[in-house]
Specification:
- By secondary structure, the protein is of the alpha/beta class.
- The chain has one domain: Alpha-Beta Barrel (TIM Barrel).
- The protein contains 6 helices and 5 strands.
- Strands 1-2-3-4-5 form a 5-stranded parallel β-sheet, with helices on one face.
- Helix 5 runs parallel beside helix 6.
- The protein is globular.
- About 5% of the residues have low confidence.
Amino acid sequence: MTKDKIFIFDTTLRDGAQTQGVDFSIDDKIKIAHALDSLGVDYIEGGWPGANPTDTEFFQKKIKLNNSIMTAFGMTKKAGRSAENDPGLSSILNSNTPSVCLVGKSWDFHVDVALGISKEENLENISESTKLFVKEKKNLCLMLNIFLMVLNIIKNIHYHVLNQHMIMERDG
């Protein structure tokens, strides 16, 4: 029998903050992070540095955690700029967290309508963004929206992205 581990990834400090009537202060976020840490949550998504002043300031604090890994959230790079020159990715890098969670668009409707770019350009944005954080030796979680719901429609996109990550991992 193997001893596989299930990792707990908590999004309270970002997703929970999007609930109507919720407005976490920095002190609230620190208290919640410490409570999650004491529960032994593996990863705590602390918010989205650069998205608002509270999250940006929160990530500038030195928060001592004993059990958990603080994680910064963000999106893949914007089209038309390099990953190294993307302000959103720079904010994540400047958050000084060992772990990063990026959300990428994987449904063609989102790519076409929300991003207004080609599927190939979207793949390039995902690939270049992930390469940046791998190069910076960040623990990377890539969240591909609606992955399971439209898997048959987009399986070739995911195969390409996952294959690229396997090649990167193999080649170091």
